TrEMBL record:
SUPFAM superfamilies: Homeodomain-like (SSF46689), P-loop containing nucleoside triphosphate hydrolases (SSF52540), PYP-like sensor domain (PAS domain) (SSF55785)
Residue numbers spanned by region Disordered: 391-413
InterPro entries the record matches: AAA+_ATPase, AAA_lid_NorR, Homeodomain-like_sf, HTH_Fis, P-loop_NTPase, PAS, PAS-like_dom_sf, PAS_4
Keywords on record: ATP-binding, DNA-binding, Nucleotide-binding, Transcription, Transcription regulation
Comp. bias intervals (Polar residues): 400-413
Name this polypeptide is given: Sigma-54 interaction domain protein
Coiled-coil regions, chain positions: none
Highest taxon in the source lineage: Bacteria
Organism the protein comes from: Oxalobacter formigenes OXCC13
Residue ranges of domain Sigma-54 factor interaction in the record: 150-376
GO biological process: regulation of DNA-templated transcription
GO molecular function: ATP binding; sequence-specific DNA binding
């Protein structure tokens, strides 16, 4: 097939058969011509070749050839799926097809999310001989763990990040739903900051916090009273958000009387200040959040159906902490930088164990509270269990070795616990030898 090259001339694109017959050298030369970072791997995760764009992106101090992708990109000693992440190579080896995933990579600027497209290369007998990986940095999540932004690399959080990235590239009405404290406002801010309205205001409407009698004037503004000489007109939040984003937090609490006016604004871009007949215009993007079942509210006639469908054009579930337990160590690191930036606090293995086995009904907010309190109570550099004041589990049960399976909290803990295995065994009430046996059983189950 003839295709147009970057320089405007025509060249022949190799047929599928020719591609399959390509030697590694020819593949490496193909990669070199690509503008995005590309890597060529063998089946054992070892890097065979990289292009110049990859060297620029990764800026390695020593050669990466012969090293593994998980070591170079993640500083891991084992493939990503052993560390609780999705591994595109393992997926592609299994499916025989191209796989696309969002991953967090180590780069000279810190950790950043990248979109990975991995294509298996097959020989003439149809066997996969190597893989080509294309890496595209994702703007939305740049510098997640170091900046005041989104933190997480679990499967549930990565699924959300994929949607967040898409929402940020458009102006579509977005509804974030998830339990209280999961970080819906943080996600809304990230969408705003990564979109084309980033330089314009991000205005929060705290729906439960505004009394119904004041809602209209707060949201749409108040005209100057006709007979008043002293009073002045008041700008509303819609006006303040002009050009930017209006974030409707707990939108289910929006009074019914306001819902029709908001619907009119969303449909026409026009609204009236309270006490005025003049139409005003606002160019806003709306992101809403709810921790309640909004659909149920529409069935109970507490929320207008037409407004619900308008607001939920692009729904994004924000996962609860219990559905992304492997993110806890990352969240702790990120939150400690916020709550005690000067102190370089660390956690004892026992404290880490407690935080990784708690159920978090209050989600990230609750984790943040534990750490804020611990930072106050802890006078040294190490947070210990007595500084955390974690409530006892309601049923009084501590995790046991018997509960360890890939989908239980203890199973997750085994894969992600960052402290010493000796402490973990002690906290679980088992010997180190049993712990290692459980761990290898777990890996075997995950491999299948
Ligand atoms: N991914 C994250 N990384 C770091 N901190 C986070 C993250 N998500 C949430 N937080 C912190 O958790 C707290 C709660 O976040 P946020 O207010 O966004 O949650 P919410 O879901 O909007 O809560 P609510 O439903 O109660 O309004 C905040 O202190 C926020 O800084």
């Amino acid at each position: 097939m003839a295709v147009l090259t970057d320089h405007g001339s025509m060249r022949n694109e190799p047929s599928t058969k020719e591609r399959i017959d390509m030697s590694f050298t020819e593949l490496a030369s193909f990669l070199q011509a690509q503008t995005e970072p590309h890597i060529l791997f063998d089946r054992e995760y070892r890097i065979i070749a990289v292009n110049s764009a990859f060297r620029k992106y990764c800026n390695p101090k020593t050669s990466v050839i012969g090293r593994t992708c998980y070591e170079v990109s993640h500083n891991y000693t084992k493939p990503c799926d052993y560390s609780g992440e999705t591994c595109p190579l393992a997926k592609s080896r299994h499916s025989g097809k191209s796989e696309r995933v969002l991953h967090m990579h180590h780069t000279p600027e810190g950790e950043e999310y990248v979109s990975i497209e991995l294509t298996p290369i097959k020989n003439a007998s149809g066997e996969i001989t190597c893989f080509v990986e294309k890496i595209e940095p994702v703007k939305i999540a740049k510098g997640q763990t170091v900046k005041n932004s989104l933190t997480g690399k679990s499967a549930a959080y990565t699924r959300m990040m994929n949607l967040v990235e898409k929402a940020a590239s458009s102006d579509i009405n977005t509804l974030l739903y998830g339990e209280s404290g999961t970080g819906k406002e943080v996600v809304a801010q990230a969408i705003h900051r990564s979109g084309k309205r980033a330089a314009k205001p991000f205005i929060v409407v705290d729906c439960p916090g505004i009394p119904e009698t004041h809602f209209e004037s707060e949201l749409f503004g108040q005209e100057r009273p006709t007979h008043s000489k002293t009073g002045s007109a008041k700008r509303g939040l819609v006006d303040a958000a002009d050009g930017g984003t209006l974030f409707l937090d707990e939108v289910g609490d929006l009074p019914l009387s306001i819902q029709s006016k908001l619907l009119h604004l969303l449909e026409t871009g026009a609204y009236r200040r309270h006490g005025s007949a003049d139409l005003r215009r606002a160019d806003i993007r709306v992101i809403s959040a709810t921790s309640h079942n909004l659909r149920k509210k529409t069935e109970d006639k507490l929320f207008r159906k037409d407004l619900y469908y308008m607001l939920e054009a692009f729904p994004i579930p924000v996962p609860a902490v219990r559905d992304r337990l492997e993110d806890i160590p990352l969240l702790i690191a990120s939150l400690l930088k916020k709550v005690a930036p000067e102190r370089n606090l660390t956690l004892s293995d026992e404290a880490m164990f407690l935080l990784q086995t708690y159920s978090y009904p209050g989600n990230v907010r609750e984790l943040r509270n534990f750490l804020e309190r611990a930072a106050l109570l802890c006078e040294s550099h190490e947070i210990r269990p007595e500084h955390l004041l974690i409530p006892e589990p309601e049923n009084g049960e501590k995790p046991t070795a018997q509960q360890i399976s890939p989908d239980t909290q203890s199973g997750q803990l085994l894969s992600t616990f960052s402290g010493k295995r000796k402490t973990l065994a002690k906290m679980l009430g088992i010997s180190e030898r049993t712990l290692y046996r459980r761990l290898s059983e777990l890996h075997e189950k995950q491999e299948r």
